[in-house]
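Hey Z.,

So I finally got round to the zinc ion thing we talked about over coffee. Here's the setup:
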Amino acid sequence: MYIDIIIKNGRVVDGNDNPWFHADIGIKEEKIVKVGDLSDANSETVIDAEGMVVSPGFIDIHNHSDVALLADGRAESMVHQGVTTMITGNCGNSPFPLMGDALEDAIRSYGSQYDLEVDWTDMEGYEGRLLRQGISVNTGLYIGHGTLRKAVMGRDRTELTSADLEAMKELIGVAMAQGCFGISTGLGYFPGMYAQTDEIVELAKVASRHGGVYSTHCRATHMFPHSLMEAIEIGERAGIPVQMAHIGSSTCQRPNWGRARSVTLKLVDAARARGVDFTADIYPYTISGGGLTMYVPEWAQEGGMDRMLERLADPDAREMMRAEVDDMVHHRGWSQLLLHKLSSEKYRGYTGKTVQEIADAEGVDPFDLACDILIQEEGRVPFMGMFGMEEDIQALMRHEAVMVGSDGTAMSPGGSPGGGPVHPRNYGTFARVIETYIGGGVLSLSQGVHKMTGMAAWRLGLRDRGVIVPGAYADITIFDPSLVREKFTLTEAPGFPDGIPYVLVNGVLTIENGEHTGAKAGKVLHNQRG
Ligand SMILES: [Zn+2]
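And the result:
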């Protein structure tokens, strides 16, 4: 028998939480054709996986590379971790539907961040552009409620009309018919923050009818546990599976330290017990990331970015928000917000410092500094910082309904455009799960792999990925658990992890001996439950 690629001598972990077993794997074209004994088969390409784990390629169910993939289809920082599929369009932000203010904002921000020209408006157009350029990993998308709301209602209006609701429902139907996996919300961000629960329920019902999932970045962390209860309520009322995004950073901030089991998981278990199909993803860090606008009050963000910047510059408006902002930031403190990717002339030199440190150096109050920096950086001020306790992350990670998602973006060596430090999850999420959580005994090998592969595939209804069985697509990651090392750092762009020498995407070697081959065998995946 002739086989294109044979993987021999490895310990196969199938992605379904079964114990590892010895088997050879045979690949023909883009699929796995045999799992068993291939000692009689011929192949020009034989990978010796002696001492290594042969796993399904990792599926990152919570990823933000939708635009980054257009800028650089190699997705290096993700594929080097073993990721073969990324689900994007998260936290309310998707690269479609682009019309009205959503189109205007996309042209502006994709242009300034990635120097990209926007020549599409819907999922089909975005997909066509991706495939013309080529991608090294598979990708699937949610339609983002924030983008949708901006496309239909513009930046200026916050109150929903029934015509708005109908227009949004129609666009969700179009996106779902084009292959979306569901709808995502960003209820802590503009403009998702203005949506009432009823609005999300009505929209989620449309996604549900098309076999979609509701992925939610819930309301601001100081609104916990109501933010979690709302996510559960939406799942219950709309009859849709809920995927709570980055449940660690969404539920484990002070004052909820130490309450992952006693509060968060109690609510989750109770919801599941009464029939709500609720799952979540988590990134394996106690460091979160976001944008400083997360701490600007809702009223001050009305009308969008330009209006917000005007208010930040207006002394009276600034005084009105001072107490509210200090209160929101209080639970983590200004000294826990480390700023990166600063590009303005005034603040560029402070990249990698905290708001508190920069305020001290400038001799101003940290709240005023935050306002000034938002103005200078035109609203784009990414931060990262400690938010929680490791025990909480571990408790959530172990739970049967929680899987791994990076919340990261694919990057090239040197990090994002502009360079400098970035959140280590962009390079290290999956390596860290292997090194620290499986290696440290928090998860067994089969559990850890399941949470990075088969569980995400199950959640999305992908029947032929995330598992090693004959007939599945040959998305495969080969790693040596004793050698996997994340290159963790907060002071510069992290390097690619060690110990993951082979990654195959649709049967094509994309990482070989630890090097990216340049292959672009990725596909745009469509919802199979539609
Ligand atoms: Zn989010």
